[in-house]
Amino acid sequence: MSTESECIFCSIAEQAVPADVLFDGGDTLFFKDINPKAPVHIIGIPKKHLVSLDAIQGDDHAMIGKLLHEATHVARDAGIFESGYRVITNVGKHAGQEVRHLHFHIVGGEDLGPLICNASSL
Ligand code: 5GP
Ligand code: ZN
Predict the structure, then answer these.
(1) Which partner for 91 in 2, 8, 52, 100 could form a disulfide, CB atoms 3.0-4.6 Å apart?
(2) Catalytic site residue 103?
(3) What is the Cα–Cα distance from 122 to 110, expressed in whole angstroms?
(4) Would you say the pTM of this structure is higher than 0.90?
């Protein structure tokens, strides 16, 4: 399992930093976002340190597919499966990626409205 020092999500994966863990998939982990932007805001990560979606390689395909499937089960357990939810991953600067360890936001629990992007340049 490749990890990186100074990476907060690697530290959570190694249980060196506490988190409110909802599901441990072995090579994946789901925990509550520390600063939720919706009534339900869960973070899903591969335990392996991958900087973003851009860093995925062939060996990772099955694990990432499994992670997305697990996300649907985590959403069901969180009570947002029927009402609907959104799965988001930010990649790089323009997406506002703050934590440079691949993660998927699972958000729901209220009407999220349309997917809003900065329309100033349109
Ligand atoms: P990004 O902007 O990189 O896509 O999202 C990073 C997310 O990680 C943010 O929603 C932020 O609240 C969350 N986050 C950052 N540090 C921690 C932490 O130490 N613990 C938990 N549970 N979430 C964190
Ligand atoms: Zn990491």
Answers:
(1) 52
(2) yes
(3) 28
(4) yes
